[in-house]
Design a protein that fits this description.
Layout (H helix, E strand, L loop, with lengths): L1 H11 L9 H8 L5 H4 L3 H8 L3 E5 L4 E6 L2 E15 L5 E7 L4 E2 L1 H4 L4 E18 H9 L3 H26 L2 H14 L5 E3 L2 H8 L3 H13 L3 E4 L2 E4 L2 H7 L2 H12 L4
Antiparallel strand pairs: 1-6, 2-6, 3-4, 3-5, 3-6, 7-9, 8-9
Bound molecules: zinc ion.
Length: 257
């Protein structure tokens, strides 16, 4: 009898709306790491918080592909925006971490857009329904100003990525991309495989492995079992193309990084 009662009780329970791990419970209780949320005045934050749902951002999880149902304030981890062509080749046009939000088509009232945004480095964040985010963005507020600043930063990053992909070599681009991820994480250890790096850089895996090997032998990074660690950041900055400095300077000016 005990067993059947237990089963019945379980079956009557409503399934959780989202996975509620210990990490997510902690997330809901601590101050915000996301630069936009952290910069909001308490009055706006109190209002917005009721619409935010803590979520895990899982590796390779698609956050935006076509229609945007939710926006995501990233608290931990890195999402990548990639553009692809018919034969399946892809290249990254932007990275989003604690500096911003996934969901620019929502803010701009477009609803949908080409390209795909997915989780490159797993972490966590807050999800907000698209309709709520759009309504909040349309109201004059500090949130609106912060999001407008982020849109400016993202556009600069995208434009520079286009130039970088066309003009700069694989080693310099790899260094730039690793630094961009490093800036958006609170750890030197980045969970990235060579396959992922190839996807981001629009280069064959063998080319990326070769470039990563050069950086590793120079002592700028180390790599073991899918964990890439930045071991000499100053030298990695020297190895990166000027694109890194241009984008970094703009994000600093906008007080997003
Ligand atoms: Zn470049």
């Amino acid at each position: 009898m005990m067993v059947s009662h237990s089963r019945e009780t379980r079956s009557l329970r409503r399934p959780p709306k989202w996975p509620r791990s210990k990490h997510l419970t902690e997330l809901a209780q601590r101050p915000y790491k996301n630069r936009i949320l952290a910069a909001l005045p308490q009055s706006e934050l109190s209002h917005l918080a009721s619409h935010l749902t803590p979520v895990a951002l899982r590796p390779q999880e698609t956050l935006l592909d076509g229609k945007a149902n939710y926006g995501y304030f990233v608290e931990d981890g890195v999402a990548s925006v990639i553009a692809s062509v018919a034969d399946g080749d892809t290249v990254e046009v932007g990275v989003i971490g604690i500096d911003g939000i996934v969901g620019l088509p929502i803010l701009l009232g477009a609803g949908t857009g080409p390209g795909r945004t997915f989780v490159q480095i797993a972490g966590s964040g807050y999800r907000i329904p698209a309709a709520v985010l759009k309504e909040e963005f349309e109201r004059p507020s500090e949130l609106r100003q912060l999001l407008q600043r982020y849109i400016q930063g993202f556009l600069v990053q995208s434009a520079q990525s286009a130039a970088c992909n066309r003009l700069h070599g694989i080693e310099a681009r790899l260094s730039y991309w690793l630094l961009a991820c490093h800036d958006r994480m609170e750890s030197d250890a980045l969970h990235l495989t060579h396959e992922v790096l190839g996807l981001m850089l629009g280069s064959p895996r063998t080319t990326v492995t070769l470039a990563a090997g050069l950086l590793q032998r120079a002592g700028l990074i180390s790599y073991s079992r899918g964990v890439l660690t930045v071991t000499n950041r100053a030298e990695l900055e020297s190895a990166a193309c000027e694109c890194y400095g241009i984008v970094r300077k703009e994000f600093r000016r906008l007080k997003l990084l």
